[in-house]
Amino acid sequence: MDVIVTGLLLGGLYALVAMGLNLQYGMARIMNLANGEMLVAGGFAAFWFYTAAQVSPLLTVFIVAPVAFVLNWLIYVVFLRPLVARAKSRGQLEVDSILTTFGLSFVAVGLMLAVFGGDYFSYSYLSFPVSLLGDTYGANRIVAFCAAVVICGALWLWLTQSRAGLSIRAISVAPASARLVGIDVRRLAALSFALGGTVTATGGALISTFVTLDASTGVLFTLKALVIVIMGGVGDVRGTIVAALLLGLLETFVASVIDPGLTLAAAYLLFVLILLVRPQGLFGRAQT
Amino acid sequence: MKRRTFTWLAAASIAAAVPATAQETLIVGAVAPKTGPLAGGAAVSYWPNVQLWVHDVNARGGLDVGGTRYMLEVVEYDDQTNAGQTIQAVQRLVNQDGAQIVLPPYSTGLNLAAAPIYNRLGLPMVTSTATTDKADELSQQFPNVFITLGGAVPIVDGVVEAFTALRDEGTIGNRLAMVNVADAFGIELMGAAKPAFEAAGFELVYETSYPLGSQDLSPVMKAAAAAEPDAFIAWSYPPDTFALTEQAIVEDLQVGAFFTAVATAFPAYYERFGEQAEGVLGIGGVNADGEAFQDYAARHLEVTGAAPDYWASAMVYSSFQVLEQSIEAVGSFDNEAIIQHIKDNSFETVIGTLEFDENNNNTSFWTVGQWQDGVFKGVASTGREGAVEVQPKDGWN
Q1: d(C-alpha A177, C-alpha A162), whole Å
Q2: Under an 8 A CB cutoff, do B242 and A252 touch?
């Protein structure tokens, strides 16, 4: 039982990490390799507010979210929109955006080093045990999981029920045709990119309560997010959630029952198997 | 990624104070991670000491080499925790930047990788953040390389000694849980620790390794707790040192001795866990009550704005002092003579007296420390003064 709960908690963390990238890659069509740096920046903000003024990271997210939204909107408009405008095909846009965001990730690491220094930033927040179904878990992990449920649930509702969500799904399926039915593709792509960045930064603020970060750890999270998004199916919120939970459960199962040393191997084995069986991801549409 | 730091203000005031001697500028090269996996550790233990040492030397009027006073100017390179970059940067420092002094790099792996290039360029390399048991082989191949921070075997011996002391007092039993990070450091120490603890009569009730960068170590700690150990050891790296301690608190792991490796000695560890860190054992240690360390720690805080750690920081500074004293004693930049001088002499440093055996190895260093009253005090060493009595870990509250 505790394997399942621990696995779900880890899966929730992964969902937080990957959901932002899914919005950016799936909807705005930007393969954002600087995604992890946005997460670390969110964590930095939480750390800074907590150590300087004892502000709870749960409140900090309300500051982090709007700032991250504006920042990501600007990043999209300044750096990425010119790429979208000149790209002749989706493939070209992918290559261009990978190169650009790869460069941006170095800039982000450099900026964070200059501003915050290279030291580890870790603090204790809600690190007391909570009893759940006869076992104990860290309160901060449970809080992060609940936040992940809320964020992912809200996103899913918004994407499936609202008109803006419908339009965003339309541009993710067929950006060229979406324009024909009166959808402002430029604005909505920027919106989903900014929203993706916001989710990632919020996730960073939440997971910094129990994961030790430093200025250069971002790339680890980018990789994890990439694996989850591709496994779940690009552009599908459900896919990301299912893939994240699956990965969390598998890693915890392997760590508890077989050997903790094999968690990474098991994760990539799952990745390879899913790609072999369903190259488009669990919930992905076959590429035309 | 190059930065020149020069304290003009200090230089100006010194120039006014010692007008008689000629002033020259000396380029000092430093290469270590500012990004990559080891950047966090280097930011605590390495870079502030470069800043402090240059500040200290310039503040006392510069380096006196054969009657000429040299003000130090640092050229820093980020090697991105990549050995290839370290080697390139060392070459660049010597060939393009004209560095007369090149400080050693950071971490065991990067030091070992860079040893051949330091050797080829004839540079003295007094390492301060490398732990290796192969000092004898190393010094035969590269006679310019010196080891100060010890090796896996003596560190393990120190931990065994501390744990045996607790067992003989009756505070812990024989049941030991031991885990390691699956990386050169963790594997080497685990390999040395297993036979050593078995020989000392401990029973290994749980052992495992976990990958570097694991995001969730709760399965590890749950399994360790389920084995009901009397003592816990983790040969861990910084992020997992923090994560394992937090999980131990969450699982309320009841052990009489709790040991984690790298980063336990960081001030950030106590800042994070506060009183719950009391009694935690870790790799390293210093003579925390000694005047030399306290004076050094105060200057470190004043000049760099951060406190030093309680292990490698003081050794990093000390290794710079060895270079400084040797160059002044030789009175020139003749590297061969400087290397010979380091071999033949002993040096008064912030860590105490440093001297090297026939294998260029400093044989007295701290191996185990413990958080006691908010200070990480050395409890075991190979011949350093000032060790305090090891205390049992009394729960997590």
Answers
A1: 20
A2: no
Separation between Cα atoms, residue B21 and residue B12, nearest integer Å: 14
Compare CB distances from B246 to A138, A214, A264 and report the shortest one's residue. Answer: A138
**Percentage, residues of chain A above pLDDT 70:** 99
A280 touches B: beta carbon within 8 Å: no
Q: Domain of B57?
A: 2-151+289-366
B286 vs A286: which has the higher pLDDT: B286
Report the alpha-carbon angle B347-B353-B356, nearest 5. 70
Same domain, B61 and B193: no
Residue of chain B whose Cα is closest to the Cα of A135: B251
* Domain positions in chain A: 15-216
Distance from CA of B167 to the nearest CA of A (A): 29
Chain B interface with A: residues with Cβ < 8 Å: 33-37, 39-40, 42-44, 47, 179, 182, 208-211, 213-220, 222-223, 238-239, 242-243, 246-247, 249-252, 263, 266, 268, 271-274, 306
pLDDT in tens, B198-235: 999 999 999 999 987 777 888 899 899 999 999 999 99
Nearest-Cα residue of chain A relative to residue B225: A136
As a whole number of angstroms, the distance between CA A14 and CA A224 comes to 8
Interface touch A122/B35, C-beta < 8 Å: no
The conformational region for residue B233 under phi > 0 = left, psi -120 to 50 = alpha, else beta, is beta
Helices vs. strands in chain B: H and E counts, helices first = 14, 16
Tens of pLDDT, residue by residue over B252-299, are 899 999 999 999 999 989 988 988 999 999 999 999 888 899 999 999
Is this complex scored with an ipTM above 0.95?
no
* Residue B235, both tokens: 């040969």
How crowded is residue B3: how many other Cβ atoms within 10 Å of its Cβ? 11
CB B332 within 8 A of CB B65: yes
| Judgement on whether residues B71 and B203 belong to the same structural domain of the protein | no
Q: How far apart are CA A119 and CA A106, in angstroms?
A: 17
Residues of B in contact with A123 (CB under 8 A): 271-272
pLDDT digits (tens, 9 = 90+) for B129-167: 988 888 888 888 999 999 988 888 899 999 999 999 999
To probe the interface with B, which of A124, A222, A253 has the most B CB atoms within 10 Å?
Answer: A124
Report which secondary-structure segment, H or E, holds B208.
Answer: strand B203-211
* Whole-angstrom distance, CA of residue A184 vs CA of residue A203: 28
Contact assessment for residue A206 and residue A144, using Cβ atoms and an 8 Å cutoff: yes
Torsion angle, CA of B241/B243/B248/B250, rounded to 10 degrees?
160
Q: Kindly report the backbone phi and psi dihedral angles of residue A24, in degrees, each rounded to the nearest multiple of 5, phi listed first.
A: -70, -40
In this structure, the answer to whether residues B248 and B293 fall within a common structural domain is no
The strand pair at B347-349 and B101-102 is best described as unpaired
B239 and B115 within one domain: no
